[in-house]
């Protein structure tokens, strides 16, 4: 299964495409950062972000999109731009007809490190190992997007299985 | 000039189309609320909101889009959904090739009432009079979208003129 992970942001939006399946190491297909200029009008920035995301979708044809969830603990001023970017990413996935999942940073850290409060160095070391890379993913900003993609491959699939099992009554 | 005003929201997004020009009363072309179900997945809600906004754009062919600016004084939990909806509205305008402006609620109140802290009743009474309606606009939720459209017609055009005049050196 091929997943596009997105670490949403207006100035820098991380995107990572990973191919893999639950419990096995994944393969990095592509990684990058979509940048928009803070001095440009907001509508133009959203348009450029959308174009950049659609380019990744068209070139790499993922089967699902996973976006880091924006959460309310953040600084309120910065949360608005991050929320707008996450909305654009989710819409791009939905318009491509793909399932779209969201994960909090701690869910993502727990998925790759087994510890929801792992620090950035631990997370980068783990994603480098999981994807069998010789060096940490570059640009560093995009590492989080790869982590979100792996989270979906590992956790999302597990959740789907649990949901299916529950629906089938296997838990009763 | 025809303007689409948007009062962004995920559960209820007000949309109002107004035709007019600076300083003269406007005409209401259309008004409505795009609703999405809070129990539906977020990506699906954003998709439905985008489809609803595009439907207004295609049916009424405005020449500009004006969106109420999401601001940080709001409750942080609700601001995320409002910010996502505003991002979708700005993107829809930009993708239609239209200029997109944003106004704060107090800029909008000042534009229609001459007082940035006017209350909801005053604003509704003024927009009803400005648009020459016999009754307040319905649904009530959408009145704010009409106010944002009028704000753009009156204030945005004035700002454009000031900018042009300044560029031409008329103020030196």
Automatic annotation (TrEMBL), chains A, B:
GO CC, any one term: Holliday junction resolvase complex
- What Gene3D superfamilies has UniProt attached to this entry? Ribonuclease H-like superfamily/Ribonuclease H
Keyword annotations = Cytoplasm, DNA damage, DNA recombination, DNA repair, DNA-binding, Endonuclease, Hydrolase, Magnesium, Metal-binding, Nuclease
Which residues are noted in the entry as Mg(2+) 2-binding?
68
Keyword match Iron: no
Q: Name one Pfam family in it.
A: RuvC
The record's catalysed reaction(s) read: Endonucleolytic cleavage at a junction such as a reciprocal single-stranded crossover between two homologous DNA duplexes (Holliday junction)
Signal peptide residues on this chain, from the entry's feature table: none
Family in the record: Belongs to the RuvC family.
Q: What is this protein called?
A: Crossover junction endodeoxyribonuclease RuvC
* Annotated source species: Natronoglycomyces albus
């Amino acid at each position: 299964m091929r997943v596009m992970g997105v670490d949403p942001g207006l100035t820098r939006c991380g995107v990572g495409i990973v191919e893999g399946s639950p419990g096995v190491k994944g393969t990095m297909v592509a990684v990058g950062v979509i940048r928009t200029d803070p001095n440009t009008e907001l509508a133009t920035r959203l348009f450029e972000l959308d174009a950049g995301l659609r380019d990744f979708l068209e070139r790499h044809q993922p089967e699902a999109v996973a976006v880091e969830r924006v959460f309310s603990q953040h600084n309120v001023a910065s949360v608005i731009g991050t929320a707008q970017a996450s909305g654009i990413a989710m819409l791009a996935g939905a318009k491509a007809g793909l399932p779209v999942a969201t994960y909090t940073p701690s869910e993502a850290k727990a998925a790759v490190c087994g510890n929801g409060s792992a620090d950035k160095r631990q997370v980068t070391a783990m994603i480098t190992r999981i994807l069998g890379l010789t060096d940490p993913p570059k640009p560093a900003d995009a590492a989080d997007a790869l982590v979100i993609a792996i989270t979906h491959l590992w956790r999302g699939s597990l959740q789907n299985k649990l949901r299916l099992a529950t629906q089938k009554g296997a838990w009763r």
